[in-house]
Write a structure and sequence with these properties.
homodimer; Helicase, Ruva Protein, domain 3; 206 residues; Dna Topoisomerase Vi A Subunit, Chain: A, domain 2
Chain lengths: 206, 206
């Protein structure tokens, strides 16, 4: 990879390979593909990125990505504003929206507490979350963070900071994935799914 | 994936997912990562692509990518101009250069003959290849195309069009990859490696 005959190409490859999960080889493939773009195609391609930088908002309420100051979900009068689902990332909103099982609103933390990566509470959108809980009529906070130690730490941090409020805190169910065989589930998941077993009568989807 | 809360983000995702081998999910991950760029980073990123479109040359001799009208390889006085290695793509030049086993020059076809994909001889850089063979002092043409039916067709097309010339045509060796176990090689490759067995005395790398 040290023998590219063009510094311009090399520069483009370097820029592309800075992106997460893109290696030098893939970056070269992509650069050569972009090289074949017509002037119009290149124009559209470049404009898409410039617009991403200049024209996008982060929702003032939930920090979701948006073309307007308040995102479409927070603006939607049919959504239940009394339930706030706390997620790590904008991608989690998309994943939850795709299930069509949730009609509340969201709060994007922008990460989770991870001392190993130098991410503390001050680096995340907690202040605006607790302000929402204090000032707005919220009944329930649903924690939908990753099922990792960092996720658990963050869940606990939120729970502790909400103790004084009268807001109900819930957490998404952990257990055996739908369609999975029990024998292939890891022990921790299977163990938790037994401890947190649900009364069959209360099961909402039978 | 039909629920992105921002049309601008959606547009960027669409542009990125037009690239080969990039799905919608990866495109979203990349777009969200680009979104975090500083103004300077975004400037460098966009400039790299604009420069790719505006400032790059394809070498007048071999069609390799270059920052100058004639590429560094064709300009290099230490390279043997009497040997031309025919490759499908610029990436193949990089792969061969990385071996440090070849000191001749190249000719990039820009593809191979593939009627199924609508690629005929007129779509590829054959004219300039045969002109080079006719007008310049070339002793040997090394065919280094993919070992597929399309590659074989293209090899044969070149060979047929060169019959009237006195230029020697060679083809890169096909056989068991270095370090591979025989039992895992496919039958065609193993069969060919037996048919095309080389006299041990003539083996250049023992």
């Amino acid at each position: 990879m040290n023998t590219l005959s063009s510094k311009i190409l090399q520069n483009a490859v370097n820029e592309i390979s800075r992106l997460p999960g893109i290696g030098k080889r893939t970056a070269l493939r992509l650069a050569l593909s972009i090289l074949k773009y017509s002037n119009d195609e290149m124009d559209d391609f470049v404009k898409a990125f410039v617009s991403l930088k200049n024209d996008i908002y982060f929702c003032k309420l939930c920090h979701n990505i948006s073309d307007t100051e308040i995102c479409p979900i927070c603006q939607d009068s049919r959504r239940d504003k009394s339930i706030v689902c706390v997620v790590q990332d904008i991608r989690d909103i998309i994943a939850i929206e795709n299930t069509r099982q949730y009609r509340g609103v969201y709060h994007v933390l922008g990460g989770i507490i991870s001392p190993m990566d130098g991410v503390g509470p001050d680096d995340l959108n907690f202040k605006s979350l607790f302000e929402r809980i204090q000032n707005m009529d919220i009944q329930e906070v649903v924690l939908a963070l990753p099922t990792t130690i960092e996720g658990d730490t963050t869940n606990y941090y939120i729970y502790k900071n909400m103790e004084s409020s009268n807001v109900h805190v819930s957490i998404i169910a952990r257990g055996i994935a739908v369609g999975d065989e029990l024998e292939y589930a890891d022990e921790v998941t299977l163990g938790r799914s037994l401890i947190n077993r649900v009364d069959f009568e209360q099961l909402s989807v039978k």
